[in-house]
Amino acid sequence: MALETGLDILAKARAGQYGIGAFNTNNMEITQAILEAAEEKRSPVLVSLSEGAIKYGGRPLIDMVIHESKQASVPVSVHLDHGSSYESCLQCIRWGFTSVMIDKSHEDEDVNTKETARVVEAAHAMGVTVEAEIGRLGGVEEHVVVAEEDAILTKADEAERFMTNSGADYLAVAIGTSHGANKGKGRPFIHHDRILEIAALLPHPLVMHGASGVPAEMVEKFNSNGGELKDASGIHEDDVRKAVTEGIAKINTDTDLRLSFSAVVREILVNDPKQFDPRKILGPAREAMKQIVADRLDVFGSTNKA
Ligand code: 13P
Questions:
Q1: Would the CB of 4 count as within 6 Å of ligand 1?
Q2: Is 157 annotated as catalytic?
Q3: What is the pTM of this model?
C-alpha cells in the first residue's frame, strides 16, 4: 500500500475522537513490532524516526522502515520526529517520509512561525504534511534536557495565531506531559482544561508528546534484573483515553518500547547466562514491544479503524 500522509490519518482520528499512535523506531525489531501490532489490531499508525535514530541507523534504517511500512495492510505514515531544521525536514521528504515535524518551539513565536511556514510551503508542494509545536515540554528530548520549571504550557490564543500564520497541519501542545521515564511523582498530571481550550479554537489534530505509560511491571522487570530506574512513572491510561475525546489525535510513544526492550533483554541475559544467539535475545524483546504497541492501540481507540 502507498504510504498515507500524517494528515490523512490524523484528520480522521480527530473527527472520530480516537488517537493514533506515533511510535519511535531505531531498528528492525522495533519497526516489525509496531507494524505487526498495527496489522493485527487493524489500526492505522505513524512510524517515527528522530534525527538521532537517523544518525544511528542511516540509509539502511530509513529504507527498511519505508519499505516495511509500504508493505503493511493498514494505513501508515513515516514521520520525522522533532526535526530541527528546514534542511533536515526536506532531506526526509526526499527520502520518502510522508509527515515531518519542524520543532522550533524553543525559539520565540515569530521565529517559530516563520521557520514552520517555510517547511510547510515546501512540504505541501511535495504532498507531505507537517507537525509543529508551540509551548515547551519538560523532560529529555534527544540530547536536550528541559527542566520541569522551564516547561511552558501551550496557550490557546497563541496556538490559534501560530497555526493560522504558519499553515502547519497538526500541533504538538505542551499540556503537562514530558519525555522520558520520569514524568513526575504519583499520577503525572495532564491539563485536560488546557486541551479543551485549545481544541475549542483549533480544528487541527492535536499531538501529545511524552505520552508513555511506563508500565510498572516493565520497570519491575528492568530493576529486578540489575537495572536502576528510580521513580519511573508515566501517563495513566485513563488520562490518555480522556485526552483523545478532547482533541488529541496523535500520541507519541517511545519510552514504553525502549523500556520493554531493555527489560526483556536484561531478563534473558540474567536468566540464561549461556545465551549468545542474538535472535534468542532480540526475538522475545520484539514480542514484548509488539504486545505493548497492541495494548496502546486499544487504549488510543484506533483498533479496527484501518
Ligand atoms: P515518551 O518519552 O513518553 O515515550 O514520549 C516520546 C515522544 O514524545 C517522542 O516525540
A1: no
A2: no
A3: 0.96
